């Protein structure tokens, strides 16, 4: 069927983000720019006769990790083998690495056939009128005000491994508001990025050593959110994160199955009050 699977050009990455919006995933306004920085050849597409039919991400991080996301085929070509051909190309690009994904819960059996096993479920919580926590004053600064190495080290503990290229782009792209909370010794206690989306804003990530720090970062970010819902994507097993979202009046939406091909990086899941993204982990 003359199908070509290849890395996407920058303008095609923007098309993939538009497809994600049409699927109801509510991507961020600057996702194309920041995601491309994570791995310039991490976005792939399936093309036939010069026409883009499907997309996927196969993003490499470090020497031993990769993440699959943005797996979308145009509705009119589904069931024709295009999606599975692109899936195989993405998996081949990440061969030999630990691979993660956030998949549709009902499709877990299909992912198991590719070697994935369930680790936990993530869930989206959101509210158009969240109850913002009332907190004591804290030392919260722009993320650019501290040495990048210090921010990278904190982010790496929460995420599970360093991701310097992505992190530099994520805190610097237009519209993102990246903030850190410091303790008395000027050590990082929490890190949050307010990410404007097609609808509302996500706190993505919201990494904090405890719920008190998370509440302070939410209170700092909330006045600057875009019109629409405030959104947190979080690990369902993290009881403190779920309790905080519910205390703000956030309602649970869809869930995803976080799956890996082998043991995931040693992340601090107890620090994750908001995931960075369903597309990159």
If you consult CATH, what is the topology of the largest domain? Aminopeptidase
Please identify, by name, the CATH architecture of the largest domain: 3-Layer(aba) Sandwich
State the total count of DSSP E strands.
13
Q: Give the N-to-C terminal Cα separation.
A: 33 Å
Shape descriptor reads globular
Helix content: 25-40%
| The top level CATH class name of the largest domain | Alpha Beta
Q: With helices defined by DSSP (H or I, 4 residues minimum), what is the helix count? A: 8
The biggest beta sheet reads: 13 strands, mixed
Which regions have little confidence, pLDDT < 50, spanning 5+ residues? none
- How are helices and strands ordered from N to C? EHHEEEHEHEEHHEEEHEHEE
Give the mean pLDDT.
Answer: 94
How would you concisely characterize the structure shown here?
The chain is α+β, with helices and mostly antiparallel strands. 28% of the residues lie in helices and 34% in strands.
Keywords for this entry:
single chain; 281 residues; alpha+beta; Aminopeptidase; 13-stranded mixed beta sheet; 8 helices; 13 strands; 28% helix; 34% strand; globular
Can you characterise this structure?
Keywords: Transferase. This is GNAT superfamily N-acetyltransferase. Pfam families: Acetyltransf_1, Acetyltransf_18. The chain has about 280 residues and is an alpha+beta fold. The protein has two domains: about 5-120, Gcn5-related N-acetyltransferase (GNAT) (Aminopeptidase), CATH 3.40.630; about 125-275, Aminopeptidase (3-Layer(aba) Sandwich), CATH 3.40.630.90. About 30% of the residues lie in helices and about 35% in strands. It has helices spanning about 10-20, 30-40, 80-95, 110, 150-160, 165-170, 210-220, 240-245; strands at about 5, 45-50, 50-60, 65-75, 100-105, 115-125, 140, 175-180, 190-195, 200-210, 230-235, 250-260, 270-275. Strands 1, 2, 3, 4, 5, 6, 7, 8, 9, 10, 11, 12 and 13 form a 13-stranded mixed β-sheet that branches. Helix 1 packs across helix 2 and helix 2 (about 30-40) packs antiparallel against helix 6 (about 165-170). The protein is globular.
């Amino acid at each position: 069927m003359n199908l070509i699977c290849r890395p996407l050009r920058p303008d095609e990455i923007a098309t993939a983000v538009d497809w994600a919006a049409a699927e109801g995933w509510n991507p961020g306004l600057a996702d194309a720019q920041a995601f491309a920085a994570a791995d310039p050849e991490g976005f792939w597409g399936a093309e036939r006769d010069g026409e883009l039919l499907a997309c996927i991400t196969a993003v490499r991080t470090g020497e031993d990790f990769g993440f699959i996301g943005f797996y979308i085929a145009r509705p009119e070509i589904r069931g024709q083998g295009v999606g599975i051909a692109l899936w195989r190309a993405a998996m081949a690009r990440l061969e030999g690495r630990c691979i993660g994904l956030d998949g549709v819960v009902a499709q877990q059996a299909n992912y198991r056939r590719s070697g994935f096993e369930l680790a936990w479920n993530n869930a989206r919580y959101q509210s158009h009128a969240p109850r913002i926590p009332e907190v004591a004053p804290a030392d919260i600064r722009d993320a650019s005000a501290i040495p990048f190495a210090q921010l990278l080290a904190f982010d790496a503990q929460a995420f599970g491994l360093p991701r310097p290229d992505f992190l530099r782009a994520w805190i610097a792209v237009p519209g993102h508001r990246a903030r850190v909370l410091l303790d008395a010794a000027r050590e990082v206690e929490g890190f949050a990025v307010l990410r404007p989306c097609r609808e509302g804003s996500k706190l993505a990530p919201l990494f904090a050593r405890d719920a008190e720090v998370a509440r302070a970062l939410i209170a700092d970010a909330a006045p600057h959110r875009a019109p629409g819902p405030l959104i947190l994507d979080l690990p369902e097993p993290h009881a403190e994160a779920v309790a905080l979202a519910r205390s703000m009046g956030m309602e649970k939406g869809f869930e995803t199955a976080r799956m890996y091909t082998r043991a995931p990086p040693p992340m601090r899941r107890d620090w994750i009050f908001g995931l960075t993204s369903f597309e990159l982990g």
